[in-house]
Structures are given as structure tokens and as C-alpha cells.
Input
Amino acid sequence: MVADPSNWSCPVPLRHHETVVLGHGSGGKLGAELIDHLFRPAFAAADGAVTDLGDAALVDLERTQAGGGTGGPRLAFSTDSFVVQPRSFPGGNLGDLAVNGTINDVAMVGATPLALSAAFVLEEGLPLAELGALVSSMGAAARRAGVPIVTGDTKVVDRGHGDGVYVTTAGVGLVPQGVDLGPHRVRVGDAVLVSGPIGLHGIAVLSVRDGFEFGADVESDTAPLHGLVAGLLRARVDVRMLRDPTRGGVAATCNEIAVEAGAGIELVESAVPVPEAVATACELLGLDPLEVANEGRLVAVVGPEDAEAALEVLAADPLGAGAARIGSVTATHPGVVVARTGLGGSRVIDLPLAEQLPRIC
Amino acid sequence: MVADPSNWSCPVPLRHHETVVLGHGSGGKLGAELIDHLFRPAFAAADGAVTDLGDAALVDLERTQAGGGTGGPRLAFSTDSFVVQPRSFPGGNLGDLAVNGTINDVAMVGATPLALSAAFVLEEGLPLAELGALVSSMGAAARRAGVPIVTGDTKVVDRGHGDGVYVTTAGVGLVPQGVDLGPHRVRVGDAVLVSGPIGLHGIAVLSVRDGFEFGADVESDTAPLHGLVAGLLRARVDVRMLRDPTRGGVAATCNEIAVEAGAGIELVESAVPVPEAVATACELLGLDPLEVANEGRLVAVVGPEDAEAALEVLAADPLGAGAARIGSVTATHPGVVVARTGLGGSRVIDLPLAEQLPRIC
Output
């Protein structure tokens, strides 16, 4: 079975691109279309069952064990490739990002991260000192997070066929008994929280990008979030679902939640914590802070009675400083995210078509 | 902590290269040095404990569970990046390879593969039809093996900063209770087996490489080997350890086994199944078939009494047709692999320094 784009019957398949464009890697609509129309059908099971292909998958560990039943241990499994340019930026580098990003994907399904893998595609000619520094950053980030890198791979490609180094991490974790997070648990009236100020990672990377350099006093928020998640679960906050607003920012994440939960989301624009420096940079560059990537933030949907408790748990951790309730789940406009603006009006927050920024994760 | 090559005190660190060279990705000595001197120290745990960073790691799933003890479930976890050129070759393509290769790494520690992830680094301009064909091959290979692809990621890099598509797969599996494979179980007198004819993958890829095209009647042996492994374990063959002889071929694999087990290996050259077409191509090109990559073969070290039973189990499966005993574990020359040649002499089979072929996995 070979996927032939000319046979795809969906409306406007892949926006009629015949080749890969940068937007396909954006975390926006183009990327979602690639998943829906190309990856998901190709990776369907023999019985036609289609896998979700979310940021992290749950694998039932007892499926293959004798006497396995329901409610057994579930493994969270996730992977991400990291191709950010430049590889170092205020507050972090490709190495931290590769470790923290995969830990966070595992944590967002409620799992305790256990171990990471790291695969490198190196370009011939990369200085070994630079590789050493990158790998040391990865090791340091893994030790900080308490999640070891246990296996890996290295390939070298000819000069001119890479970009120094591409890193792909994968991560595994265990979902604690009784924890069940996901869009199926979202209810009308739920509170939408963010764990801290948004837009810092994207603006930090942009501020040092070739041709874009500007003096923004910002640092990437790159950080491992499994501690925050464990805190929420330990406090028995009724967490419905979690997601980290990386590529496509809070806008993309809220759109994903709205579509997957079949509910509307109403954001209160004035409640979204946008640091002054991010706001200024966004104004200067014509960007929407809601669409800027984050690497150390999570969006949490929690039961309405638990919103305050959740904010307290988040704010008690330095990584959750500045956590805020930014909106609610609504019965109106299912699948659509609307922001109430400062002037009493409202605007639709669409899933970005592609990236508004150069690649930043 | 930043790795500074000038501080490395080991003899001839990284052969004094200051930049990454193609050989660092070869599965030979240069690659091993990169792991020993750069990755392993950087990824050490906070207490200084160094991880093995083997092809597949074992993760103790009960370490973090309340009441966890020994003998609990162990997860096998592995990753590999695939950068083969050309992406299609007689008998397979990059997609099959990415699925089978990772399944095999998981299987070589005795685990039952459960799920795969797939991360793509796409170069802007890659025809979507080609991506579709590749992804379809991956889906088909996953269905054939019965191991689903459950999560993934896509990044797009600027034109000229990739090579069409690089795929990184990771895999997870469960090690059945009581299964314990590894170099620590190898004993003097053990038999060394190979599951079938060697060298087919490497020669198949080489036969269609730019500038090398020649008419060899060979097809890649790319195949998932977890069925063979399950067969051996089911038959209660005393398997000491398994490894798939990919990059660096049987030579590299036997050297790894000898070094890790602290024993010698004596191969009987005339017993190694080298297909006629592989032998001819190797003679033509001045290659050693023992160093040519395989993607559907395993090397098994088994207890001496079980060698015949193991060969029967292997040969009963089409993927094990042509299985043969190729040597023994010896007390002499620990860490060294020696081949008895046809003329009654012997030669040392060294770990290849770098690849003798262009990258083929």
C-alpha cells in the first residue's frame, strides 16, 4: 500500500502542496493535516484501527502478559526531534530542550518519566568540542530532572546534508494507578490554567536568530515539568488534562483541547500572563503572544472547584510562579477558542496555519 | 560541566580528530570511542554511575512503584536514527529498515516488542508522494511485525540542511519473567551461531549507490527478528546473549561480545554462511564479508549442549533458514576474535576502525 496524494479524497488535502514546506513542521494546521492525511492512515493497525499519534502514547503493559487485565500498568511513550537554530539561546540550548521537551511530553499524560533515549544525526565536520558541550548540557538536564539517558545512537551524514546536529529523544514513563488524563475528561465549566508567563522561549530564540537579532531581555523558560504534574496529582486536584504549549503556543494547545474535547474554550485575554518584554517584542514584530512557543509551561484543564487549589500547588513551585487561570471550557462554539478582549469584544483564536516564527524547538 | 576534549586523559582520545568524521557513525572503533569518551561520561548519573548506553537499555519498572522489588517487570528501550542513501534498495527501503532495526534492538535483549515511535526530520522540498511511500512502508512493516507505531514527531528543516528525510525510531518491549540475556552469561565453550547468510543488506545497498552501481543479484535481508527470539526462548534453549550484526557486521558484533564477556571468540571461517553473490561482490570490491552490515540476522551465543536445538529452532523459521554454528567462546585470547582460515591458519578479526562501506543503515 503506497500513499498516493492524488487519491486522497479529503477536502483540500494538505493544502495542495506537492512537497514538504516549512509549515508542515510548525505544530499548526499544516502539521495537523500531515498527521491526519498521511501518517495516521499509513500507521493504521491491520484491523484498520487508527492510532491517535499524540505527543505521548499510552501502552498497556499487561496486554501481552499472561493473565493481563484492565487497570494494569500503563507506559507513556513519546518522541521528539530537535532542530532549533541557533543551537544556543538565552536561557538554554538544544541539549536542555531535547531532554526537557520529551520529559514534558511524557509528564503531560500524567506519567512519571523513567528514562530517555537520545539519537544523534551529526554532520561531518561538526567540532567535537561543540558536540561535547551539547551532550554535557543534555546530561546535566537529565540529572537535574532525575531522568537518566539510558540508550542512544549516532549516525554521521556527509557535509552539507545536515545542520551540525539533530537530536531525537524518546522517553518512557509509568502512569500511576488511577490517573486518567485526556480530552475525554474535559467538562463544560472546567477552568483553563497556564503554569506561568508565556512566550519566553520563542522570543528568546528569535532574539538571537540570524537576521532577527534584537535586544529583548528574555530567557527561554525551558524546564522539566514532571515535578509540577506530580504536585498536582499528589494534591488530588481533579486534573482533566494537561498539555505543554510548545510549537504554536497557547493558541494551538487550546485549539487542540477544544477540538479533541468537543467543547468551546473562552480565554480572558487580560488574564493571560504575558511578560512585558514578550509583549514589546511581539508588538514590534507583529506576533501574537498566544502563538509563541513555550518550553517550560503547561496548560491544565481542571475541575472548576479545584482551580484555586491547582493554582496554589503550581505557584508553590518555582516553575509554576505566575500560574494563572486564563479561561474556561464552554458549551457554546464547540471546537472553537474565543478570547474576550480588553474592550469587551471577542476574537476567535484560530489554530495557526503554520509557524509565525522560525523553528524554535 | 562541559566536555572539553583537551582534558580527556585517555590514550589517543578520539584518534585526535577535532571534528566529527564519517567513521564516527560507523559502528566501529571510532564510534565506540565517541561513546566511551564523550557520551558515557556526559550521561553519567548524579552519583557518577555510568550507563551502558547499549543498543537497548533495560528499565526496571518497579523501581518507582510502591513496594517494588527485584524480579519485577523490565522494559527494553532502544532508539536508532536511519540515514541510509539511497532510501530504496533491492529488498527494502529506509522505512522497513527503521521499523525492523528498532524491533530487532528490542528483541536482542530478549524482550517482546510492544510499540514504536517515529520521528521525522524532513527537508523542505521533499515530494509528499515520496514521504507517503516511505511512511506506508513503515506502516506495512509495523503491521507485518505486529508492533504498532503509536507516537511520533515531524520537524521540517530548510532546503539544503537535510537529505530528504531522516527517520528516528524508538521502541519499547517487555522482557519476559526469568529471561536474562547478556555478556555476563557467556561461558567458555559456548557456541556462536548466526541465523542465516550474511552480508546481503550491505551488498544490496552498495549495489545501487551512486558511483558504485553493479549488478549483484542480492536483496537486503531486512526483517524483524523478534519471532526468532521468541522461538528460541519458547524452546527453552539456553541463550546466553543475542546481538544483531548491523553496522560493522559479524566482525564488530563478535568483537563486542568478546570484549564485553571478557572471553575469546574463535570463528571457523568455512562455517560462516556467505552467499555466492556476496562473496563475489566482496572479492570485487576488496571487502571482508564479516564486516558487511546485516539487517535481518542475529548472532546468538548459546550453551554448548543447546547448539543443535537452537539451530533447529532457527531453521524452522523462514527467517532463520541457513542458520549455522560459526564458532565458539574460548578461554584463550580474551577480548579478541580469531578466525580459523581454510588453510589451517588463523587471523585476528579486528573491530573495524570505521566503515568500509558507505552508510547502510
Notes: Residues 5-14, 64-69 of chain A have pLDDT under 50 and may be disordered.
